[in-house]
Amino acid sequence: MTVTWEESGWEQLAPGVGRRRLPGWDCTAGIVVGADGVLAVDAGSSLAEGARLRTEARELTGRRVTHLALTHPHFDHVLGAPAFADAEVYGAVGLDVALAGRGREELSADAVRWGLDPAAADEAVAALVPPRHAVSGEWTLDLGGGRQALLANVGPGHTAYDLAVLVPGDPEVVFCGDLVEESDEPQAGPDAVPSRWPAALDRLLRLGGEDAVYVPGHGAVVDAAFVRAQRDALAARFGVSE
């Protein structure tokens, strides 16, 4: 690596695994480094932010990002994706449809509603290419040198297209997207599926186990107890029976 984790502004979670809390909406971007490939998890809220993440990843690893996993189709996680034009892009089944047609108009409008500059929103949406690889169950990426990352379609919940990323190791790291939020109460917009959200968190807990590091879409990293408490709170909030 050409710079250290501390110098880069990224938080190291496990050997070769880290994340960055982005300004503005406190959205998380992740990185998983293998001997042959580099996986980015989410891409930021604009082309400029995506380009910064791409540059920082290269400075940190000495290599380009080869894979990009999008955890769900909200603007603060996907609008930077066109900056990773030469990466293989993955999303939950149906994400390609959600990011096409009228979905693109809604994505741009949502970004502007939350405060993104309209020109930046339009630029990013115009350049956005839907994911090439659709994950229906689980998909294991081999990044080389014994490094693997498991992409798991665990939704619906926060949206209809929730993808988690499990990185085996010591500790195991689970990138949760916005199925888990630490810095605020989980946001349930019109595209949420509240009746299925607690079950999605049960799936995350089965994937990671008690000793994993869980990385929310927004906020500080948490443990299994936090995820379980948030699962119970969501079940109570939405009237979902056990």
Summarize it.
This protein has 242 residues and is of the alpha/beta class. It is built from eight helices and twelve strands.
Features:
242 residues; RibonucZ/Hydroxyglut_hydro; alpha/beta; Metallo-B-lactamas; five-stranded mixed β-sheet; MBL fold metallo-hydrolase; NDM-1-like; 26% strand; seven-stranded mixed β-sheet; 31% helix; 12 strands
Please provide a written account of the structure:
The mean pLDDT is 96. It contains 8 helices and 12 strands. The chain has helices spanning 5-8, 47-61, 75-78, 95-98, 102-113, 118-127, 197-208, 224-238; strands spanning 11-14, 17-21, 28-33, 38-41, 67-69, 88-92, 133-135, 138-144, 147-153, 163-167, 173-181, 213-218. It is α/β, with parallel strands linked by helices. The N and C termini lie far apart (46 Å). It is globular. It holds the Pfam family Lactamase_B. InterPro entries: Metallo-B-lactamas (IPR001279), NDM-1-like (IPR050855), RibonucZ/Hydroxyglut_hydro (IPR036866). Residues 26-218 form the Metallo-beta-lactamase domain.
Helix/strand layout:
Blueprint: H1 5-8, E1 11-14, E2 17-21, E3 28-33, E4 38-41, H2 47-61, E5 67-69, H3 75-78, E6 88-92, H4 95-98, H5 102-113, H6 118-127, E7 133-135, E8 138-144, E9 147-153, E10 163-167, E11 173-181, H7 197-208, E12 213-218, H8 224-238
Parallel strand pairs: 4-5, 5-6, 6-7, 11-12
Antiparallel strand pairs: 1-2, 2-3, 3-4, 8-9, 9-10, 10-11
Helix pairs in contact: 5-6, 7-8
